[in-house]
Amino acid sequence: MKKNVQEIINVGNNIFNKNLVSGKSGNISKRIKSANGDIVAITPTLTSLGNLKQEDIVLVDLDGNLLTKGKPSSELFMHLEIYKKRDDVSAIVHTHSPYATGFAFSNKRIKRLEGFGEIKDPYLPYIEYEKPGSDNLAIKASEGIGDSDVLVLKKHGVICVGENLKEAESLAIFIEESAKTQFITYMLNSAEDMI
Ligand SMILES: [Zn+2]
After folding, report:
1. Is 75 a catalytic residue?
2. What is the pTM of this model?
């Protein structure tokens, strides 16, 4: 388990250093599959993801029962609902990364730029605002993500999922860069007299 926990700590450091999870925002989890019932390791509530220690990571079962001490992220049930619906998902990274979240607060959608699998929809899927940490958000997000690997939460942030943490982390970085590229494109297109 130490290795799994360390992996979460490393991803926390990486995405904190890339400014995807400023302050105490964002959360990361990993599912460890087991015949006796899956275990989920998740980041704690109200703690910066940039400075996590082994003892900060909380272990729970799929029903949210605590297996270790500590207080899990307030979005624990959002993670658990996604794991329950998606057997192919074993890692979730949730951020409020600034460009992607800027789009989430606007009436513009983030285009799915090439890079991750077949493009079925030119825009990233999204759900309307639900209160962070609420059961409604957990239910709507787990339904809204469908079989996608990313979901925009309106007026809140982004969820990226993958079969492992590396994949979910790369996707979170890629989505933020996509949103940034799109933002710059909008700005340049609207600055008519720059040339
Ligand atoms: Zn959030």
Report:
1. yes
2. 0.94
27 Cα to the center of ligand 1, angstroms? 7
Q: How far is the centre of ligand 1, averaged over its atoms, from the C-alpha of 25 (Å)?
A: 6
Place of tokens 């492992």: 164
Cβ neighbors of 73 (< 8 A, separation 6 or more) are 27, 29, 42, 43, 44, 45, 79
The count of structural domains within the chain is 1
Whole-number Å distance, alpha carbon 195 to ligand 1 midpoint, is 40
Angle at 77 between CA 178 and CA 65, to 5 degrees: 140
d(CA 95, CA 160): 8
Contact 30, 41 (CB under 8 A): yes
> What is the domain-level CATH number for residue 27?
3.40.225.10
For 20-69, what is each residue's pLDDT tens digit? 999 999 999 999 999 999 999 999 999 999 999 999 999 999 999 999 99
Residue 153 Cα to ligand 1 midpoint, Å, equals: 9
7/60 Cα distance (integer angstroms): 17
Q: Which domain holds residue 186?
A: 2-194
Q: Which of 7, 75, 167, 176 is catalytic?
A: 75
